[in-house]
DNA sequence: GGTGAAAATTTCGAAGG
DNA sequence: CCTTCGAAATTTTCACC
């Protein structure tokens, strides 16, 4: 959503307990504050205060439910590499806005190197992918689009590896 | 984690209200059941029962906190394409186990086509990526590994687009 | 920062249409 | 499958180390 450069400055120092809290909450955010406190060695009030602070500081972005892709009929994951025809600011903005608005797009990165953009797209079936693909190539001019289809999801996590220090 | 083929059979039919609940909970799982009920047009008990059922059926996998990658010092995202040297079952198992165990790996798919595996990896800096890379290539024999570095995260969501029907 | 307990909410289940 | 109602549990606040 926002430029990485904007976020470098405002890093609060996280101590060991904060990091433990983040590790726990990234795995299971349905635990009670008392239970989290137990696991990190804190009673519930200080644990609650730390969680509030981590949320206020934007370290914790939100709490969400994770849904099984296959159980709701979204059987296909595709990694899409895009090379742009045009490297102007206006083109980028238009492309970024168009792609960001597509609900099939789970992740969307501007890349260094040969590939300009990388997308992870989730759709129900090949027909739905074709609809997406046509939508993508008609949104803005592109030089090259490569679609790579996933056969098997071996690992997928949302929990970042919280650095030790 | 599990093979896609195993999950095709056991699809429960989700009605409009279930889909609305999933849409809401994928965006914000910190809402009270009463609030969710309001948004989907239900009082709290039936809403709560539906949520319980969605969890029991594995449609909702878990509730987690999402953490800001940059705020915890993980500045680098890398898409890694791997071509395998060996296509035996034993090799695959060893590779899958080794890569799944690496905390830097957020996503790991077996692919169709020219690339055999695709990984999304998150690390603190280039030095940490180098450590990861060496770990990866020393785990099992690989034919080719291509690392593509993200410059900017334009979109990243965990909320799947819940199909209309 | 931390503790402990009271006040405010929320969850979860019983009874019933 | 929904509604209302209430007991139990949890979250959140507060007075005090």
Q: Which short descriptors sum up this protein?
A:
DNA-binding; 165 residues; Arc Repressor Mutant, subunit A; 4-stranded antiparallel β-sheet; 5 helices; elongated; 5 strands; homodimer; alpha+beta; disordered N terminus; 2 domains; Alpha-Beta Plaits
Describe the structure.
2 copies of one chain form a homodimer. By secondary structure, chain A is of the alpha+beta class. Chain A has 2 domains: 3-56, Winged helix-like DNA-binding domain superfamily/Winged helix DNA-binding domain (Arc Repressor Mutant, subunit A, Orthogonal Bundle), CATH 1.10.10.10; 70-149, 2-Layer Sandwich (Alpha-Beta Plaits), CATH 3.30.70. Chain A has 5 helices and 5 strands. The first copy, chain A, has helices at residues 16-27, 33-40, 44-56, 89-100, 126-139; strands spanning 60-67, 76-84, 105-111, 117-123, 142-156. A 4-stranded antiparallel β-sheet of chain A has the order 3-4-2-5. In chain A, helix 1 crosses helix 2 and helix 2 crosses helix 3 (44-56). The longest helix of chain A is centred in the last third of the chain and has 14 residues, at 126-139. The radius of gyration of chain A is 20 Å and the shape is elongated. Chain A starts with 15 loop residues before the first helix and ends in a 9-residue tail after the last strand. The relative contact order of chain A is 0.14. Chain A binds a DNA duplex (17 and 17 nucleotides) through residues 32-34, 42-46, 48-49, 52.
């Amino acid at each position: 959503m926002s430029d990485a450069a904007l976020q470098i400055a405002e890093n609060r120092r996280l101590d060991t307990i904060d990091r433990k809290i983040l590790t726990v909450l990234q795995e299971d955010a349905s635990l009670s504050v008392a239970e989290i406190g137990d696991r990190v060695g804190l009673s519930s009030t200080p644990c609650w205060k730390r969680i509030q602070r981590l949320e206020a500081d934007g370290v914790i972005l939100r709490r969400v439910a994770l849904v099984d892709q296959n159980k709701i009929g979204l059987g296909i994951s595709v990694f899409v590499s895009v090379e742009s025809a045009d490297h102007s600011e206006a083109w980028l903005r238009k492309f970024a806005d168009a792609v960001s608005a597509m609900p099939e797009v789970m992740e969307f990165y501007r890349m260094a190197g040969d590939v300009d953009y990388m997308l992870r797209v989730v759709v129900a079936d090949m027909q739905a992918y074709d609809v997406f693909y046509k939508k993508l190539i008609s949104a803005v001019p592109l030089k090259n689009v490569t679609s790579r289809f996933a056969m098997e999801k071996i690992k997928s996590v949302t929990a970042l590896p919280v650095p030790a220090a």
